[in-house]
């Protein structure tokens, strides 16, 4: 990469003054997309994305990794092997509910980099970072084992490409559908909601009626949704940790959704962040930015599936929580009862 750039100089000056600044935070301070900073780093190599399936297929050879996916207000970190891939041209899965479980949306993948740097005491940090067209991180995959050097070198050699420093347009606010066309056929919408038989069909329902997810919940049939306390996530996490209840935690962005399925045990608040700090799963949720939280029950062929979804002030989804369940089985009644017990919006329950 070309180091003789004003951005690189500004980045180095910032690190000299604030050496603990994270890469994403540095981008915010400098007023540039994160990918632009990465593109001028001496230890970063640009990777081609004309064969995404081939690139992702190499990740399993890296051994145990940490997959990090995030949006503005939630960071989801999961350790395991990057395998069990099912990929098509525009979408894909990494289907391991006990490990790294992902949903890919490749139309948003624009840039990829391999980064290798010294960490002191003979340790090296090796990571693959994927960015969208606006320079926002989609996912970072960080190696956890030191004995896969040949696999790392082969991946970088096979996908490295010549590149110049990036200049990308800033991201727009998350796009949500316009308000539903008037007159809105409430009876038709409620009938369509009640006819749902698969939670994955909900997106098609919102598109059919021109609704954002938030509006879709607000217009649902009586008894199926309600707005709950903005601190719902902390209530759920602490209760699940106390009882050992396995849950599902979804965090995503334009290009990916990352999922944890299983118990959570170590829940800690650090200022405005509520955190899960377990061995193989970390969640960092800035819940002060939760503008709305919704309790949602959707019909499926096996009964009803219950979720709790968090939104920011712009209507973007921050995180979604479900109970652990298997296809063809009803949901765990313990999870359903926990979600139902959440206080209404405006009420804040004791989370101690």
Automatic annotation (TrEMBL):
Residues 34-159, 211-342 form the Haemin-degrading HemS/ChuX domain. One of its GO terms (biological process) is iron ion transport. It comes from the Bacteria. SUPFAM superfamilies: Heme iron utilization protein-like. Gene3D superfamilies: HemS/ChuS/ChuX like domains (3.40.1570.10). Signal peptide: none annotated. It holds the Pfam family HemS. This is Hemin-degrading factor.
């Amino acid at each position: 990469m070309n180091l003789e750039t004003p951005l690189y100089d500004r980045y180095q000056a910032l690190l000299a003054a604030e050496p603990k600044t994270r890469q994403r935070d540095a981008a915010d301070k400098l007023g540039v997309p994160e990918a632009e900073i990465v593109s001028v780093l001496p230890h970063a190599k640009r990777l081609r994305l004309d064969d995404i399936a081939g690139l992702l297929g190499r990740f399993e050879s890296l051994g145990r990794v940490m997959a990090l996916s995030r949006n503005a207000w939630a960071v989801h970190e999961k350790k395991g092997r990057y395998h069990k891939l099912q990929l098509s041209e525009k979408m894909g899965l990494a289907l391991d509910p006990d490990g790294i479980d992902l949903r890919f949306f490749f139309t948003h993948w624009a840039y990829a980099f391999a980064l290798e740097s010294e960490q002191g005491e003979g340790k090296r940090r090796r990571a693959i970072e994927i960015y969208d067209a606006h320079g926002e991180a989609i996912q970072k995959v960080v190696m956890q084992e030191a004995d896969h050097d040949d696999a790392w070198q082969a991946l970088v050699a096979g996908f490295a490409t010549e590149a110049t420093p990036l200049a990308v347009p800033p991201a727009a606010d998350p796009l949500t559908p316009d308000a539903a066309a008037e007159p809105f056929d409430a009876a038709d919408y409620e009938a369509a909601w009640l006819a749902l038989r698969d939670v994955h069909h909900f997106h098609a329902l919102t598109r059919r009626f021109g609704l954002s997810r938030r509006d879709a919940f607000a217009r649902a049939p009586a008894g199926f949704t309600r707005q709950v306390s903005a601190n719902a996530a902390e209530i759920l996490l602490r209760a699940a940790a106390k009882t050992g209840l396995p849950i599902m935690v979804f965090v995503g962005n334009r290009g990916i959704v990352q999922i944890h399925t299983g118990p959570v045990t170590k829940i800690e608040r650090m200022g405005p962040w509520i955190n899960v700090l377990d061995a193989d799963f970390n969640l960092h949720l800035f819940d002060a930015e939760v503008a709305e939280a919704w309790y949602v029950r959707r019909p499926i062929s096996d009964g009803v599936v219950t979720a709790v979804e968090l939104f920011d002030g712009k209507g973007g989804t921050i995180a979604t929580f479900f109970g652990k369940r298997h296809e063809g089985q009803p949901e765990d009644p313990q999870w359903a009862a926990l979600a139902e017990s959440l206080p209404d919006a405006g009420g804040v329950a004791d989370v101690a």
